[in-house]
Amino acid sequence: MERGxxxxxxxxxxxxxxxxxxxxxxxxxxxxxxxxxxxDWTSGKDLIWVxxxxxxxxxxxxxxxxxDTTFLRWNTTSxxxxxxxxxxxxxDNTDGAGSCSSEHFTSTGNWGTNFPNPDYDQDNDTWYCNxxxxxxxxxxxxxxxxxxxxxxxxxxxxRRVRSGTGQMYFTSQLSNFQLLEWNTAHYDLLYTRNYxxxxxxxxxxxxxxFTVLSSVVFADSTxxxxxxxxxxxxxxxxxxxxxxxxxxxLGILRLxxxxxxxxxxxxxxxxxxxxxxxxxxxxxxxxxxxxxxxxDSSGQKITLGGTTDPLKAFEExxxxxxxxxxxxxxxxxxxxxxxxxxxxDYEKLNGLPNIYLVDVTPEAxxxxxKSTGEIEPGESWDINVNDLYWYLEQYHSGxx
Length: 400
Hints:
Elements (H helix, E strand, L loop, with lengths): L2 H14 L4 E4 L28 E9 L2 E10 L2 H10 L3 E7 L9 E9 L4 E6 L11 E6 L13 E7 L5 E9 L10 E11 L5 E14 L9 E6 L6 H13 L1 H6 L4 E12 L1 H10 L3 E10 L5 E6 L3 H14 L6 E13 L3 H5 L4 E5 L1 H11 L8 E5 L4 H8 L4
Parallel strand pairs: 1-12, 12-18
Antiparallel strand pairs: 2-3, 3-8, 4-7, 4-9, 5-8, 5-15, 6-7, 9-10, 10-11, 13-16, 13-17, 14-15, 14-16
């Protein structure tokens, strides 16, 4: 590829990744990243958070395509840098074909990781054609992440929209969910692997590019606004406080005449796929996505996600992880889901013994943003609220 064309492709992808994000938090922290003293992602005082072992891959299994980052591993210095920076870590994969006509992949919503307390998001960030969920990212929302020397992984499933050649981008970055991060510059590590019309990889090994982009680049090209509610749960008291606050938000919905609400539901214990499916039918709930608790042969906790059939998603992710060298995957059950419920059913659902919390925060926060003019008519937006199951596990094990 000619140098000028390569620059255009990379810049196009980077613009897609430049979505401004906001945080609703008790402790809003400013960006602490300084301008880099190096143009090499492997060095520089503010780039030592980059994983020491980073091996993104791209492969085909049946009718689906997968991206994986087996493995990401940090040493003590880089792990502490992430923790001390006040940021979370995000693994972002994008179909970066470079133009609307050559866009080939859309994320299915099936994914897996051993990140602690992961949050998955798939976006339509193609501001120039607005056609598909071509970007997917997994963020670790946990203050103790990462543990030095631990092998972390992510895997995401994609569906082919049309044949052709192009690029798949892998972006390793500190999370851009902090409110003031874009006041200065954005630092990330960008890899790209090329694929052919048959799906085979070419130009191996991958091209890598360290990027420093000013927030001015994205001032007038934000296709989807992302708002993230940061929960800041570090103790049993924090967990109970968040739960009580979420329940109280029901009053905001009723005050505004809301009859159908987007919610995040955390189960009190894992539910079998069959029981989960029956639960949705009996309560007439519109499903958007779900998360499952799984484990590998060593007993480590793994989170899997999907959008339709839990059992099918588990089998597909099991196959994907086996191809990455992770065998012996077992399933505990569905731990949470996002969907829409009738507000009139709230007390009934939230009072069920298998439910820990029906969280209406996404809907309540939307009303708040709308009333203050943060969300304008016709504007594309996304409100991210994570479930509480990871913290519930921590509570039951005596870790918080």
